[in-house]
Amino acid sequence: QVQVAESGGGLVEAGGSLGLSCTLSGLNFIDVAMGWFRQTPEKEREGVACIPWNSGNTWYPDSVKGRFTISRDNAKNTVYLQMNNLKPEDTAMYYCAADLTSMCAVFGYWGQGTQVTVSS
Fold it and tell me: Has residue 107 got a pLDDT over 90?
């Protein structure tokens, strides 16, 4: 059984930092790319970061580039998202997902999400 579990969300003031973690079980972690996404009731889900199995060629949209950093520890089956200089518009439910293509292309396994709220 594949399980994706996020942790680390919370409330932070604008300009602050927050780190998220996501642990994958039930798949060979080194075979998958891992991504972070976010969604609010008003917006469609958007990708905010992706990292391939070997940590090379990470991807970020312009909205978070330079502020968010994705990393992974293959020995711990865990991917991280460090978020700095947070803005109120970063407020969302953040989801972690696994991509068996390992190319940041098709995410078939999702976590339940963790809420991030940035106060102004």
Answer: yes
